[in-house]
Amino acid sequence: SHGLEEYYSKLLWRYTSYAFNQNDSLVYVYQKSIDNYEIKLYNLNGKYVSKITKPYRKIEISAEKINQNKRSESLRDIKYHFSIYFMFVDFKGRLWVNRSTDRKDINKSEIFDIFENGIYINTIVLDFDVLNDDEINLITYDKGFFILNFTQNSISKYEIL
Predict the structure, then answer these.
(1) pLDDT category, 88, cuts 50, 70, 90?
(2) In whole angstroms, what is the distance from residue 104 CA to residue 18 CA?
(3) 26, 34, 42, 74 — which has fewest CB within 10 A?
(4) Longest dimension (CA), the chain
(5) Distance between CA 124 and CA 140 in Å, rounded?
(6) DSSP character at residue 122
(7) Quick check: 27 and 41 in contact, CB under 8 A?
(8) Residue closest to 44 by CA, chosen among 20, 62, 74, 14
(9) Which of 131, 38, 34 has its CA nearest to residue 81?
(10) Average pLDDT of 112-117?
(11) CA distances from residue 84 to 1, 13, 101 in whole angstroms, order as listed
């Protein structure tokens, strides 16, 4: 049974991403897509409130990554990056969206679009890479967040102004 739960957990992670905002009691839900950048907002009763959309250009996966994907049944036919990888809400209630980018543009960095009250306010680049095979965890705290890289045995601290 544990193996089945782990399988479904990984499957859900591959196809949805969500973040919770305690400040305004909203849940942000992203259905993984290679075509759209769309985040739906729901209240705590599960009622649809609104959505965030942003123009998005499909980004092809490199031939090397496609060959690696062929080893994984669930990723075998994916030829493009998902538009969004993950999201989180900072201590000020702003939504941070880790979006896909052409890796030739910024090698080993992540781009985040930041939204406040559903309105885009900024894009920033941070110096870590979620597309490598490292096991990474992000932990928020009252002044920012930490990136824990278990593979490289490192911690990076980011303070939010």
Answers:
(1) confident
(2) 28
(3) 74
(4) 45
(5) 17
(6) E
(7) yes
(8) 20
(9) 34
(10) 91
(11) 30, 12, 9
